[in-house]
């Protein structure tokens, strides 16, 4: 079997505009998700059950249900309620792209919060004791010692989450957005050429995945150098 | 509350469960083969295993599902006339769903199993060889039973991701819980209600799985003493 490269060549512009949509979705979801994840992770390591429990419930429910269901709940589901349709948020919530950003950001915030919480719990006791010993106030200790240290050590696991998120953005094509997968679905329905369409999409995703892996390897070399095994 | 669609949703949920269990069974087989390939001392076999794991893990599930379903459909219909079958063949979404999810998660599990095999002390396999066991016997009688304990945490993760990925097979027309919810939601214009019910069903499934696998982990760690702090 040979691939029809003329079709692939002709549809490349569509794939590149899809690439732009995919990257936008990914960056917005990751940015907002990380902002939400930091306070959630701090809640998750709290010893006070009133603070810990809501964050635990949030991450448990989000991580226990499929992304597709969450996306459909937001995009199709919210319109069921009169109050939502008449609220100020409706112009946004009726847009597929906003719903996709929102759903992906919520989803990644839960996973990222758990990663960060694990990393926070693994903070070496000496770092905290040292901060206390020189009389740092609590907030300053979190800002200067605990969070920077935990965020760095979370990098390897966070890189997995980022790649999972890249793959998750493909679901946006199911709510009418034309991302890379959406482009492939369009091409497939135009030409009835599933291999050309979806293999091209797969190659795009593979390249993106490899770029992300390289990027995180580089970041780890930069921010985790002090933890690397000593070279002989 | 579900306006008589409860039974239909339950039917769908049962199909989802069957899909998830069949897929994980296939994934375990492919994962073991993949791990055995990647640990092989023969270079090109190890390379094949590496390619399988890397390529599949670099592509979104949805793209692979669409590729294998629509692509498979085309291949079947091009091959069928050659063997004297002229009707148009529709691929069964359940079987292609199991095939696709098994193929995808086999790659993820090969990574889990590879790590678990490498965690077994070398002396175990060497002792097997010293007793005159064949390499197959060493693999199935010595390595696999010990590997399970190391593999359970990774397996748990992959199983949870797989259960959630089953929702995607509704896209190619499998009448699973997601598909039934969409039907009900369209008929009654109450999408939130029905998708929330689906979310609850998945939450029950993942919660039960977590408890069951935690119990299994305890059982398989029975012979290992954990140090108390």
Automatic annotation (TrEMBL), chain A:
Record bears the keyword Membrane: yes
GO MF terms, alphabetically ordered: transmembrane transporter activity
Annotated transmembrane regions: 25-43, 55-76, 162-185, 197-216
Top-level taxon of the source organism: Bacteria
Domain ABC transmembrane type-1 residue range list: 19-216
Gene3D superfamilies named among the record's database cross-references: MetI-like
Gene Ontology terms: cellular component: ATP-binding cassette (ABC) transporter complex
UniProt protein name: Arginine ABC transporter permease protein ArtM
Naturally occurring in which organism (per UniProt): Atopomonas hussainii
From TrEMBL, chain B:
Highest rank taxon of the organism: Bacteria
Region forming the signal peptide: none
Membrane-spanning intervals of the chain: 12-39, 51-71, 91-109, 192-213
Mode of membrane association: Multi-pass membrane protein
Subcellular locations according to the entry: Cell inner membrane; Cell membrane
Keywords recorded for this protein, A-Z: Amino-acid transport, Cell inner membrane, Cell membrane, Membrane, Transmembrane, Transmembrane helix, Transport
GO cellular component: ATP-binding cassette (ABC) transporter complex
Gene Ontology molecular function: any one: transmembrane transporter activity
InterPro entries (alphabetical): AA_ABC_transptr_permease_3TM (IPR010065), ABC_transp_permease_HisMQ (IPR051613), MetI-like (IPR000515), MetI-like_sf (IPR035906)
Record Pfam families: BPD_transp_1 (PF00528)
Any one GO biological process: amino acid transport
Residues of the ABC transmembrane type-1 domain: 13-215
SUPFAM superfamilies given in the database record: MetI-like
NCBIfam families recorded: HEQRo_perm_3TM (TIGR01726)
Protein family according to the UniProt entry: Belongs to the binding-protein-dependent transport system permease family. HisMQ subfamily.
Name this protein carries in UniProt: Arginine/ornithine transport system permease protein
């Amino acid at each position: 079997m040979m691939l029809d490269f003329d079709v692939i060549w002709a549809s490349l512009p569509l794939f590149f505009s899809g690439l732009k949509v995919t990257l936008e979705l990914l960056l917005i979801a990751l940015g907002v998700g990380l902002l939400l994840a930091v306070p959630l992770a701090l809640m998750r390591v709290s010893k006070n059950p009133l603070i810990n429990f809501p964050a635990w419930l949030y991450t448990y429910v989000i991580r226990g249900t499929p992304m597709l269901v969450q996306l459909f709940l937001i995009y199709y589901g919210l319109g069921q309620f009169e109050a939502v349709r008449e609220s100020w948020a409706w112009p946004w919530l009726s847009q597929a792209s906003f719903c996709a950003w929102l759903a992906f950001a919520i989803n990644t915030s839960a996973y990222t919060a758990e990663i960060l919480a694990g990393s926070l719990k693994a903070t070496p006791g000496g770092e905290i004791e040292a901060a206390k010993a020189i009389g740092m106030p609590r907030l300053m200790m979190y800002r200067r010692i605990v969070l920077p240290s935990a965020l760095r050590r979370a990098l390897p696991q966070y890189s997995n989450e980022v790649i999972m998120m890249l793959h998750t953005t493909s679901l946006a094509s199911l709510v009418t957005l034309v991302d890379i997968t959406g482009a492939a679905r369009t091409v497939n329905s135009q030409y009835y050429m599933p291999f050309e369409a979806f293999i091209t999409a797969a190659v795009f995703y593979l390249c993106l995945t490899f770029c992300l892996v390289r990027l995180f390897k580089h970041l780890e070399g930069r921010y985790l150098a002090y933890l690397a095994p000593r070279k002989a | 509350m579900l306006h008589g669609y409860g039974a239909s949703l339950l039917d769908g949920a049962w199909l989802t469960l069957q899909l998830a269990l069949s897929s994980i069974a296939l994934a375990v087989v492919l994962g073991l083969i993949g791990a055995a390939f990647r640990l092989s001392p023969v270079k090109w076999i190890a390379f094949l295993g590496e390619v399988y794991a890397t390529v599949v893990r670099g592509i979104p599930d949805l793209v692979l599902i669409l590729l294998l379903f629509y692509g498979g459909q085309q291949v079947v219909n091009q091959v069928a006339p050659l063997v004297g079958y002229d009707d148009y063949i529709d691929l069964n979404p359940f079987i292609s769903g199991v095939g696709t999810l098994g193929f995808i998660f086999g790659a993820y599990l090969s990574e889990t199993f590879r790590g678990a095999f490498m965690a077994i002390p070398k002396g175990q396999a060497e002792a097997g060889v010293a007793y005159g066991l064949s390499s197959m016997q060493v693999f199935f009688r010595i390595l696999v039973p010990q590997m399970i304990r190391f593999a359970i945490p990774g397996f748990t993760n992959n199983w949870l991701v797989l259960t959630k990925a089953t929702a995607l097979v509704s896209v190619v027309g499998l009448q699973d819980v997601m598909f039934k919810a969409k039907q009900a939601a369209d008929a009654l214009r109450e999408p939130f209600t029905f998708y929330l019910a689906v979310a609850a069903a998945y939450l029950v499934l993942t919660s039960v799985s977590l408890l069951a696998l935690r119990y299994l982990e305890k059982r398989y760690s029975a012979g290992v003493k954990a140090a108390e702090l």
